[in-house]
Design a protein that fits this description.
This protein is α/β, with parallel strands linked by helices and 511 residues long. The protein has 13 helices and 21 strands. The protein has a domain of 255 residues: FAD/NAD(P)-binding domain, CATH 3.50.50.60. Helix 1 packs parallel to helix 5, helix 1 runs parallel beside helix 13 and helix 3 crosses helix 13. InterPro entries: FAD/NAD-bd_sf, GMC_OxRtase_C, P2Ox-like.
Length: 511
């Protein structure tokens, strides 16, 4: 069922059993899991079914620290969320990502990879992926020409990705709108959360829109699924009862903002061409491919973060501008056009340099960011048109981030040399071991994580292992905001699995 909140009578009261705030990957995944149940599900979406620049403007904010994308264009604010323009890269986190690592400050999840596995399998289906199998051997037998570089698998392994074309807005709109028990309210922007006098139970969420309408939503349980930045922003802005914001007794809401560092880091020159499709990818065609990753044993030995290296033909890569340069328009549609235009231009120029394509590559890093409490979301002094203070992002990297990127390519260079198949040339920004800075050309993956991190100790996290906000019995956070660490893979598969795990927990609470 679909209701446009702009058309409701002002000050309407909306009631249900569970209220999900946000209709992106996390929120829609949870809603689908409750479809055809005996419970009334309220699904709130701040935008409509199409892009609206006035609604998108609600995401605008300021950034400081390491150069970042304009916040307005870093997320999409309509039904389906940022799956409206994602690349579809999916891989599960590795077992080490959940572990406490003594060389990674503030690492460690209160749950393990085994806790995720059944929900990863379920998430694979929602994302329209293949089987929940990310082993190289399986895909080597499934697809042609996936020969791997002959490297020591005790040091370097092939991290497999599957590719989803799931645009949640297109894929699940009909099912949600036609559902009898899911009530989708569009143009219903959450602006405040009201709790009881003890601030131990949420009573209602206040929503507003540009039509000048204000409504109240009441439910037994509330799930914030607005994305990493907006989840933190709404909690911080809900400060009429708790001056520092809801769930923020220990000054943790908004801290530990994490991104994936995606940066061109080195060149790989093979001794001779190596025929394989394993390390290449074409959107809409490739079912599975791999990136080079460092084993858990070597990560532990060298005390580095988890990251991967992908290959782009050097003849193409040298004409591609960093995404941090092409994606600087606050309108996400124009930034997307700029990026695609550069890619098209690079492809045309690369056609005349076919001689290098088969043996010269740019190595691109995708690596987790070390959890850093100074990397954070705060509220600025300016308010949006609905009266909510805007989010400010301070993105701050550490020496461990830089050391890890450099060490990964030293390890890969050694292994490629030992195998006799090629040599690696580090990019200039990695050559000085005493330089811990990153260039402005360092890309983020648009992968926002960590601002309401998970820990069973309320002094170390905002939510517990079931994604419940500490001290508030019926308020939950869904999505990558809960990640204590960010792993190397893109977050969508894992955030979908975590959301389904939360959904399962809520179902048991309803019994």
């Amino acid at each position: 069922m679909h209701i446009d909140a702009r058309e409701l009578e002002n000050n309407s009261v909306i009631e249900g059993d569970i209220c999900i705030v946000g209709a992106g990957a996390a929120g829609i995944s949870i809603a689908l899991d409750w479809m055809d149940s005996a419970y009334k599900v309220i699904l709130l979406e701040g935008g409509g079914f199409e892009y609206d620049d006035k609604v998108q403007e609600l995401y605008a904010g300021k950034t400081t620290g390491q150069k970042y994308f304009p916040l307005k264009s870093a997320r999409l604010h309509y039904f389906g969320g940022t799956t409206g323009h994602w690349a579809g890269m999916c891989a599960p986190f590795d077992p080490i990502d959940f572990k406490k690592r003594d060389w990674v400050p503030n690492s460690g999840w209160p749950i393990s990879k085994k806790d995720f596995d059944p929900f990863y399998a379920k998430a694979n289906k929602i994302l329209k992926l293949g089987p929940y199998n990310y082993e190289y051997e399986y895909w080597y037998n499934e697809l042609p020409n996936l020969t791997a570089f002959p490297l020591d698998d005790k040091v370097v392994w092939n991290k497999i990705w599957q590719y989803s074309q799931a645009r949640y807005g297109d894929l699940y709109k009909k099912a949600i709108v036609e559902s009898k028990n899911i009530h989708l309210y569009t143009y219903a922007n959450a602006v405040d959360i009201k709790a009881d006098d003890n601030i131990s139970n949420v009573k209602e969420v206040i929503v507003k829109n540009y039509a000048g309408k204000t409504h109240k939503v009441k439910a037994k349980h509330f799930v914030m699924a607005c994305g990493t930045i907006q989840n933190a922003r709404i909690l911080l802005a809900s400060n009429s009862q708790a001056p520092q914001g809801l769930g923020n007794d220990n000054d943790l809401v908004g801290r530990y903002f994490q991104e994936h560092l995606e940066v061109a880091s080195a060149e790989l020159w093979l001794v001779k061409p190596f025929s394989t499709n394993l390390y290449s990818w074409e959107y809409g065609v490739t079912k599975a491919s791999a990136e080079l990753a460092i084993t858990e044993e070597i990560q532990t030995k060298e005390k580095i973060l988890n990251g991967t290296a992908s290959l782009t033909p050097l003849s193409l890569a040298k004409y591609q501008k960093p995404r941090m340069e092409t994606w600087q328009n606050s309108d996400p549609r124009k930034s997307l056009e700029n990026m695609f235009a550069n890619w098209g231009e690079a492809a045309e120029k690369a056609k005349v340099e076919k001689g290098n394509i088969e043996r010269a590559f740019q190595l691109n890093t995708r690596i987790e960011q070390a959890p850093n409490p100074s990397s954070r979301i705060t509220l600025g002094g300016e308010k949006d048109e609905l009266g909510v203070r805007r989010a400010n992002l301070h993105w701050e990297l550490t020496a461990l981030d830089k050391y890890s990127v450099r060490k990964i390519y030293q390890i890969l260079g050694q292994q490629l040399g030992i195998a006799g198949i090629g040599r690696i040339r580090l990019n200039e920004f990695l050559r000085d071991p005493n330089d811990n800075t990153f260039p402005d050309s360092t890309n983020g993956g648009w992968h926002h994580m960590g601002t309401t991190r998970m820990a069973n100790d309320p002094k170390k996290g905002v939510v517990d292992s079931n994604c419940q906000v500490h001290g508030i019995s019926n308020l939950f956070i869904a999505g990558a905001a809960c990640y204590p660490t960010s792993g190397a893979p893109n977050p969508t598969l894992t955030l979908t699995a975590l959301s389904l795990r939360l959904s399962d927990f809520l179902k048991n609470k309803m019994i």
